[in-house]
Amino acid sequence: MLKNSDKSAKPSPPPLVPSRRLAVELKKLYTKLEEFEQQKLDLETILLTTTEHGDLIETALFKELRNFRLRLEQLEQTRKGLEREKSDLEIALETVTETADLFQQELLQARSILEDEVQKRTQELAQQNKRLQAEIQERKRIEADLQLAASVFRTSREGIIIMDAQRRVISVNPAFTDLTGYSESEVLGTDLRFLESGQHDKAFFHRLWEAVHFVGYWSGEIWNRRKTEELFPAWLSFTVIRDKQQNIINYIAILADNTYQRRSEDRAYYFAHYDILTGLPNRILFQDRLEQLLKRAAREQQWVALLVIDLDGFKDINEAFGHQAGDELLIAIGQRLVQVVNNDDNLIARFGSDEFILVLDNLPSGERALQIAVDIAAQVLELIQQPLEISGQEISISACGGITTYPQDSEHADELLKNVSATLYEAKRQGQNSYRFYTRAMNIEARKRLTLQHYLRRALERDELFLLYQPQVDIHTHRIAGAEALLRWQHPELGLISPSDFIPVAEDIGLIVPLGEWVLHTALHQAKQWISQHQVALKMAVNLSMRQFNDPLLLHRIRQALEESRLLPHYLELEITETLAMQEAEKTVATLRSLKSLGVFLALDDFGTGYSSLSYLSQFPLDILKIDATFIAEIETTNGANLVSAITTLARSLHMEVIAEGVETKAQLACLQQYACDYVQGYYFYKPMSAEALTQLLLQQEGHK
User: Fold this and answer.
1) Using only C-alpha atoms, what is the Rg of the chain?
2) Residues with Cβ < 8 Å from 672, sequence gap 6 or more?
3) How far is CA 379 from CA 185, 309, 372, 423, 509, in A?
4) CB of 287 closer than 8 Å to CB of 294
5) How high is the pLDDT of residue 365?
């Protein structure tokens, strides 16, 4: 039996065991408790059965029953103890379970922390790996760069010099040796003074090193000396290398031979500033030097003269002997000019195709300067006239010149050049082998020409040009047989401008071809109108200028004009001057024959003024000779009459008709009637007139109202 003290005492909690072990022990206790319960039931059943049989067995069994009850009480106590143990075990199990849950939570938390730590560490390792890969790639790149730099250093065509902070050479490449002749062993530990040429002063090198130290680099051209003592131009680049504390650790110099570059630049400069053919300065260099000469003349109060020379008939020589002969002639003329003006104070330049210009510098002032300019001009023109042997043939040529002076005529280079151009124009108008001094009147004339050029370019657009018609009269019947179309210009501000003023300008600026084409179309349309509207047919004479006659499209233009006007070719008479015809006689023959094939009439104008070759004249397919007005003016004299008689006889022998120009008196007409002249034109019969006036005249002649 259990003691009271034992009954009241609470069982101590069982030691903490793992949850699985506790469950097994608890299951055993439950099994034992169930066995006791079953025995208790069995005993109670027996007890009840015994009581039912009466008191017979009470005595026998009483003792046993009491013992059994005692045992039963003991079992009850045991059961209660087991229940307490069960309760304690359940409490312990709960405690263990809670502890296990806490442990599991702590375990999960620790696992999460561990996983975070693992992930963080993994990321750190990945970053470290990435950095390592980058460092590896950078090291590979640096290694490749070093290999490339070493390769460049070895194979570079420029000399490379590496120096320490004290400017001592620590390395040079093979190109340096090739460039200077010094080997690496000869220059290690030295500075670069052994390369100095003596062409640069101390201030130059002071500026060089100052730029290297303060800017970090310097580059420029420098003269150096090879080991052979030969000087050569080089392009030098200096760079300074510093560490993180900005301390100088190295200097690097790159040296390139600039000889060929200098030669190329000199050659380019020569081509840009000198005439390739003659070797004389061209216009660009001339103008630059002229400015310098004028500045010096202003400082020293001296005079300067400009002499421009233009060859006469140079184009004829080119066409007669070829362009190679023309080039040889220009070279020879340039050499002759150098002989005349052969000191450093003077300047000679080729200014155009056949134009040279001389500047006479360091002249005294006043009349003495003018006299020196005149003497030089005379010498030049005389020297040019001396025969030259060109391509195995002796050639003679003349020239014209113009002179202007500083400061008398102008103090500005541009104006002096304009002045000298004006003098040349006047000299050429004066005649071959002549020269002219600049005058204010020439400047006015030059300005007038420029004004005419400006207005003439727009004259066609503004419908300022018109035609007058000079009737050609049959010398026997006095009937109008033809008309010569004459170009006129009526400017709204300048008024009526003479053809002698604007035709040369049109020739100079290249407008004569479009103007001539306009004259041709207008005249042919007018001739067709007279035929179609008034049934009056007469020949229309149109003059061809030199540029028109040499135009490759001349034949096409005339054919097109005839087609557009629908005028039959035999109503058109084309006139060329004798001077034009004789310039290139063989070419003239071919062109005239082509024109003749169109069916037009051909006339030789101003006959007697151009020194025609009779041999060529007989080859020209001409229909008409026009006697120049200068001969008609002298026809009443013996010599004049004889000349006109000879011309008409020549024309008859060549089966040509004759037209006399400039007939102004009855006596002149009478003389011409004696010499078998066919047609006349001049003020004696009619002045040039408008198309409307000539229309009325023709209608009256034909008997129309």
Assistant:
1) 63
2) 475, 632, 635, 644, 660, 663, 680
3) 67, 12, 11, 18, 32
4) no
5) 81
Contacts of 173 (CB under 8 A, 6+ apart): 153, 154, 156, 159, 160
For 361, the token pair is 């510098």
Residue 2: per-residue pLDDT: 40
Residue recorded with tokens 């009855």: 666
Provide the percentage of residues in the chain whose pLDDT is more than 90.
18
Whether 253 and 237 have beta carbons less than 8 Å apart is answered as yes
Instruction: Tell me which residue of 257, 225, 253 sits closest to 239, measured CA to CA.
Output: 253
CA dist., res. 150 & res. 166, Å (int): 23
Largest CA distance in the chain: 217
What band does 598 get if pLDDT is binned at 50, 70 and 90? very high
> What is the rounded distance in angstroms from the CA atom of residue 359 to the CA atom of residue 676?
58
Burial class (CB in 10 A: 0-12, 13-18, 19+), 77: middle
Q: Which residue type sits at 561?
A: A
* Cβ-Cβ contacts under 8 Å for 346 (sequence gap 6 or more): 358, 359, 360, 361
> How is residue 85 written in tokens?
């143990």
Residue 629: which of 643, 611, 615 has the closest Cα?
643
pLDDT value, residue 10:
45
The two three-digit tokens of residue 208, written as one number: 């060089």
Rounded Cα gap, residues 133 and 125, in angstroms: 12
Residue 666 reports pLDDT greater than 70: yes
- The contacts of residue 506 (CB under 8 Å, 6+ apart) are 456, 512, 515
3-state helix, strand, coil in the chain (%, to 5): 55, 20, 25
Rounded to whole angstroms, the Cα distance separating 564 from 368 reads 65
216-220, 261-265, 337-341: least confident range: 261-265
Q: Look up residue 167 and give its DSSP letter.
A: S
**Spatial distance between the Cα atoms of 469 and 654, rounded to a whole number of angstroms:** 28
User: Which DSSP category does 545 fall into?
Assistant: -
Per-residue H/E/C for 326-375: HHHHHHHHHHHHHHHCCCCCCEEEECCCCEEEEEEEEECCCHHHHHHHHH
Q: Which amino acid is at 437?
A: F
Q: What is the mean pLDDT of residues 522-542?
A: 91
Strands 303-311 and 399-406, by their bridges, are: antiparallel
Which is higher by pLDDT, 193 or 290?
Answer: 290
Q: Say how far apart CA 73 and CA 46 lie, in whole Å.
A: 16
Cβ proximity of 668 and 635 under 8 Å: yes
Residue 308 in tokens? 């421009």
Of the ranges 3-17, 39-53, 546-560, 597-611, which one carries the lowest mean pLDDT score?
3-17
Structure tokens at 644: 């006109």
